[in-house]
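Give me the fold.
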Amino acid sequence: MRLSETLAFVPLFEPKDKGASAYVSDAVDLSLFNSFSAFLSFGAITADSVVTVYGDATSALATALTTAIAFKYRLSAADYKVALSDQWGDPVTVAATGLTLTAASFDHRTIAIEIDPDTLASGARWIAINFSSVGNPLLMSGIGIGRSRYPGHLIPSAL
């Protein structure tokens, strides 16, 4: 089994030292997946930042963030290169207002934001992830992994 033909790997955030502006992922079409998780990895966090997930019926939401949605995340159990850094804590529910990332809890960790495409509001099939303009600098990157509804050699693009 080739994972690249079973799972879709969706680039969300290139590794970046986020500055004073918001940092928004491309819009992702969740109708192509049975399940979807966004893995966001952090380096140094020097001030609080807020991550919010938005859902909408159009791919234009990446430039017009209007409908924030609740989501669940799991936090890696340890910092990078430390025993248990590949283990995950219990799911935590986050209100639509978003998750505040503090250095004390998220510095040098990874979070998995898990979204069930079947629970999005009627007509909504696209999501985008936004990091607020506060909390600078914030070193981070992110990739989405979806279990494709249409596996095979050429999985349809979700972007």
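The chain has one helix and twelve strands.
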